[in-house]
Amino acid sequence: xxxxxxxxxxxxxxxxxxxxxxxxxxxxxxxxxxxxxxxxxxxxxxxxxxxxxxxxxxxxxxxxxxxxxxxxxxxxxxxxxxxxxxxxxxxxxxxxxxxxxxxxxxxxxxxxxxxxxxxxxxxxxxxxxxxxxxxxxxxxxxxxxxxxxxxxxxxxxxxxxxxxxxxxxxxxxxxxxxxxxxxxxxxxxxxxxxxxxxxxxxxxxxxxxxxxxxxxxxxxxxxxxxxxxxxxxxxxxxxxxxxxxxxxxxxxxxxxxxxxxxxxxxxxxxxxxxxxxxxxxxxxxxxxxxxxxxxxxxxxxxxxxxxxxxxxxxxxxxxxxxxxxxxxxxxxxxxxxxxxxxxxxxxxxxxxxxxxxxxxxxxxxxxxxxxxxxxxxxxxxxxxxxxxxxxxxxxxxxxxxxxxxxxxxxxxxxxxxxxxxxxxxxxxxxxxxxxxxxxxxxxxxxxxxxxxxxxxxxxxxxxxxxxxxxxxxxxxxxxxxxxxxxxxxxxxxxxxxxxx
Length: 500
What we know:
Elements: H1 3-9, H2 11-27, H3 37-45, H4 48-57, H5 68-78, H6 83-111, H7 120-131, H8 134-139, H9 145-161, H10 171-180, H11 190-200, H12 206-219, H13 221-233, H14 235-240, H15 246-258, H16 272-284, H17 295-301, H18 303-310, H19 323-339, H20 343-366, H21 379-389, E1 394-398, H22 402-407, E2 413-417, E3 433-438, H23 447-460, E4 466-474, H24 478-485, E5 492-499
Parallel strand pairs: 1-2, 1-3
Antiparallel strand pairs: 3-5, 4-5
């Protein structure tokens, strides 16, 4: 059964996955929500003036990511899309990445059957596994490069593995090139691909490989231009992304990836069974008799996060593109157990997989043990507190980037993030109410910036009386995290101080 025939044969499976994935995402509070910290960088860059400056000054950018994803979201904004509409588009991209790999897996499962059809139980597991991948649910709607990169890598995989003629595989080069213009981690996809093509498949033809890499280079042109500037002038910012030790980065990536960037440190035990299942699934698909087996390509792609973790990279949401690969391997493992008559093992695989998904989804909705502290801040509580107490002209000073972004633009209010709030502190401005939103942040270790910020707050609130101090958000793992990292954390994620 070829790829398109599989898509037509299992269209109801794909529809069920789409319904499950979108429904679970909405129920978990995705799409219609406040932005998280990294999304502010995207939203700021697609503002009309910022976008013009970004285009004019390219590639001298203050970001360490290539700009293709910003171009994508800028195009959506120009079409009139709201933040929620753009998140829905990101969610659809993530679903497309999942669906592309689900079709691929179903075609492989069909090849295992004498009648050319996937087993009904395996089809159901495929729907549930692909539709409830924890990281896809938590990050699938992000206004960041992850969903764009995920669908490009899925296209690259499918367009290379599926065509029966080599010339048709050239389309995968365009997807890989654009992925390189979306994030530099695409470079780590190249070695596994070369190993699969030249060593396992034993394929090398200048008539194919030369045009292939020329197409990749054309698609990666924007990314290459960015890389030349960033790795020449902003290498410190890149190095900062690889600042964790090997053990902390490996453990963080495992917990974040399999726990959907939602389960906290004290809940790490929940992901141990699914990690074991995934490891068994990966090992069971190794076929020494058939080195060119397509699933081996998926296995080789797993080397990228391993290498990044060993280099000290600890941002698991960046591996969203591997959620379809993970779902594929788990589905194939379940199918293998069913076909070999190990029904109890298959049931155990299903229970472990969906229990982990359920735990992650529950933590996304109302978690007090967050993986990422500022991902569970109840911002509406902050805004309600400010609206209830603000009197006259209002100043909002914040160590959190989301609050000032949401509060910007009001005529009688000025809000600023960190030292950027100085634009609100002109000598001719007098404020009746001042709100200081503070908490642990990514600059807490910088003593000089912290000192300057404290001085700024002291000067702005001089002669004022603090009327209230309200804790916002709870991290019940704060003390455990403090012991593990040596970074002092309070249980309250943010505190809002009100001055008159």
